[in-house]
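Schema walk-through. Below, the input block comes first and the output block second. Nothing else is stored per chain. Lengths vary across the set, and this one has 251 residues.
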Amino acid sequence: MLQVVCKKDYEEASRAAADLIAAQILLKPDCKIGLATGSTPVGAYAELVRKYEAGELDFSKVTTANLDEYKGLPGTHDQSYRYFMDSNLFDHVNIDKSRTFVPNGVEEDAVKACKDYDELLDREIGAFDIQLLGIGGDGHIGFNEPADAFCVNTQCIKLEEQTIRDNARLFFNGNLDEVPKEAYTMGIGFIMRSRKILIMATGPKKRDIVEKAFCGPVTPWVPASILQLHPDVVLLGDEAAISEKVRALGK
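--- output ---
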């Protein structure tokens, strides 16, 4: 079932996303949460930090795993996704960092890195209670890019040119040459195991792809379209990203 939540702007959408994640933590203090990076979830993470500082949340029993990491970047690199998570959330709440998992970006053997992460996810997570996602301009979730087939397991992805450009704009000081060209990303199979999926989309640039993902056919050329087959999805966005056609799906 798809629930569509449309808020006025990014700030309201971020607060609503944080409220959903906070509710999961309050309901099940030892819950398992799948996390995303990029610009979209930053506001939600800031709101979760605020809730923790206000004494409203306890992260001490929470386990998390992230969707992806750049191949070749150590967690100490200021553009790595481990660093992003530390800076935006983990360093500011009482989470046990030994229970926060990110693919190993410095493992050069791609087959081993992917196998190791799948084994870790099976052993430590099993299935997320809630998975937070963003959506790329081409419909990618995590770094699962458009392809001939949906990839079930963790994989090493050669990033599409548009993804590289988007990431250079958001990070790496706009320098295309500094953006890694490969990344390890959680497979769609594990994402789809999640009991609930929360996907965020904000801003006018996401409007067309959101409509394709949720109103068009299920196709690996729009990876997020697979979410149409999940039993519990919340699509949360702002008025700029969520068209009337999409809003009607959640009514």
